[in-house]
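Table 4 source record.
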Amino acid sequence: MAIPAEGYPRTAAISPRVQVVDMTDSTNADVIRHATDDPTAWPHLSLLLTTDQRAGRGRLDRSWTTPPGTALAVSVLVRVPGIPPAARGWIPLVAGTAMSRAIAEQLRGNAQIPELKWPNDVLLSGGKVCGILAEVLPGDSDAIVIGTGVNTRMPRADLPVPTATSFQVLGLEVDDDRLVADYLSNLRDLLAALEAASGDAEASGIHAIVSAACGTLGRSVVVSLPDGSQLEGTADRLDAAGRLVVARLDDRGLGVDGLGVDGPGGEHAVSAGDVIHIR
């Protein structure tokens, strides 16, 4: 799909800067470069998007490449000086929730319901339809670039992994402009609520909102931790910092490098890791 001639008017009504490019290696890298070179030209909620990203990156520095026209890559710059650093772990969760809500708007009248897989993947019918990567702008810790990749018109043969899906595979139409605009407005409002409460996720309602969107909670899970160890148990809840609290089955394979914090009753709070939902 080529960039629509009419552009993205709904998105432009929300964002102070919408930069659309026909092709790029990485939208996150572009925004980081541009916002570093000229910060005043990239205010809060500025974004860059394309339907042809050639060398995108996912979490844990994985590559993310899709055939031209089959996915939407969007990177949004958020400026969050009012959110304390200790509360910024909620920002990727907020972004995932914002995209879950935007996708839900595309599915009105459809039985399928998107869900957030901790920390920030969005699933449809159990398959990953969207991934998110948040990066701090070098030299400005109050600015964060949130990159989002949505599989829109990707045929089944082009899906990168068996656990992925797309709007097209599920027989769904997608309005790119409306999707981005809804995502942006949700992101704006959720971040504003967190900032108004000085980063208190409970008081702001963010804890409850993200928890309600998170399909990981209550599931049996296996978590692959960055040190190579695994944690198996039940995803019980999110703690005050947005970490996933897992009620573990036993102590086998747990790392001791501070990636998780033991709690009462064999609980383990995970701050980083890949989650697999056990069916």
